[in-house]
Amino acid sequence: MAFCSTCGTQIADGATTCAAHAGQAAVAPAPIAASAHAGGDGLNDNIAGLLCYSPIGLIADIIFLVAEPYSRKPFVRFHAFQSLFTALGVFVLAIGIVIVAMLLAIIPVVGWVISTLIWVAFGLGNLALWVMMMIKAYQGESTRLPFVGDLAAKQAGV
To answer: What percent of the chain shows pLDDT beyond 70?
Structure first.
């Protein structure tokens, strides 16, 4: 079974084009663009940076800091370290919010409402932060977050 090299319709075996395109030259497929990183192996740097902030970020961070060729790329190392340090900061902040929520639980109704509002704000802010960082990494930017950005840059050697 053969297909027309111009439009893709099924044609007789041995033919290269269909009857509608018999007099036209076959169009060569467009070449695939070269990858955006040097070396040609593995993921593009911007995809690796995006994965650092994704839901599998902690696993991706560790892999990118240990595995070649990513462990040699400053862009990927920066985002992996910044993601790790940010996750640690978010974890510590969550522990602080748990303590505040336990103290607010003493207040019958108002404490529960305030605690719920704090958790919703924390969750939405956390989601916005991670999505923003995924977008920035995908665009090839190395946006430094407060507190952890300089530390990550120092660790990554940037």
So the answer is: 84
